[in-house]
Amino acid sequence: MYSDASNSYHGFLRASNGTITPFDIPGAGTGKHQGVQAPLSINTNGEITGAYKDASDVYHGFIRLADGTINSFDAPGAGTSIYQGTKPISINAAGAVTGGYLDASYLYHGFMRPSTGPILTFDAPGAGGTGSYKGLGNGTEPLSINTLGVVAGNYTDASGARHGFVRAVSGAIKEFNAPGTGTAGIGINAAGASAGAYGDATTLLHGFVRAPNGTITTFDIPGAAAGLLIGGTGGFSINTAGFSINTAGQVTGTYSDASDVFHGFVLTPTTTTLSSSLNPSIYGQVVTLTAVVTSIAGAPANGETVTFMEGTKALGTGTLSGGSASLTISTLKAGTNVIKAVYGSGDSNFLGSTSKSVSQVVSKATTKTALASSLNPSNVGQAVTFTARVAPQFSGTVTGTVTFYDGTTALKTVALSGGVAKCATSSLTKGGHTITATYSGSTSFDGSSTSLTQTVN
Q: The pTM is what?
């Protein structure tokens, strides 16, 4: 919209060739701050929706068709006093429109105007609060509609907390909340992914993307910082806020820097793929985990970081080079290790992503036990120390216990220390003795055994 010298508002359409066509809505007021208040959305057919304010400062909705025909409408239940009325926000390719209306108590409610048929009104379950003069955000506020007719928006509950919602074509409404104190779903694409902003405990806004399966990824743009409070007491400050998401999943929005200067951004979604160089593997064996990060805009910049996670434990990080990052590791525990690679978005061009899980199966490693005598042959009553050394198949320190036997008689069980266990005895009788050292094994290593013949004179 634009305002004239009298501060009356008018709409305009700028064609792809740069031609600007101004327009006004029949019935729009011509006084100060009246007229075509908000041509807010245009679809692929060139149809525009928005709101206009009449001479009594009441809002009404309109659709301007590609041929210039204008149809005005009001949602059922819309108030007719100053600053009340109907406020369309978004129009999809089929010509369906969504938005909100202010009732006689200045409380917001949602509506959906299909391309054919009556206007449907709705409220998110749990929506409440008290209407405020000029309708400052209490109730249900739809903000976007995709090509299928799925609506995204937010609502305020009776305690004043804000929540996001998605309204399916069937009319079913699902609430969602990003981490923080308030969530505003703002844009939704054809796949059902939505973008928006959420507030933290200090009322600072951050961006989020909600996947169609409900998974929420939060983000902030590097360089974003807490700024001036917007709206005074109880207001908010913008760090990062996502406003719109396209069919490719790219998100656009705004952020403020430390000097309270606003900047725009476009974030491109990424896909992270994880692979293992050796699966299954053996405990102590070297395995290289490789993450590849891709997007429709190419790979993220070299030097950014990918974190390799086993559950909530970070195994280590890798540095991207040509879209690939690797971690070489030999300490994965025996059993099944469920591993993911997380690209955390290190710049202002790409959204972070998490790979699908890879189940790395690690078998126990074999061991080899060696046994030595400190004195062989020995004499009756003479002290002899038997030393067992347990070596792993690949790497790592073997833990557990070794039991020393004289024939079938257990002499002693000793815990390994640094892979070594010792047993001293002076009770061996005259003759030949078969001394055996048996390593019992552990969660990481298989057991092993060896023997020697001790001669006692």
A: 0.76
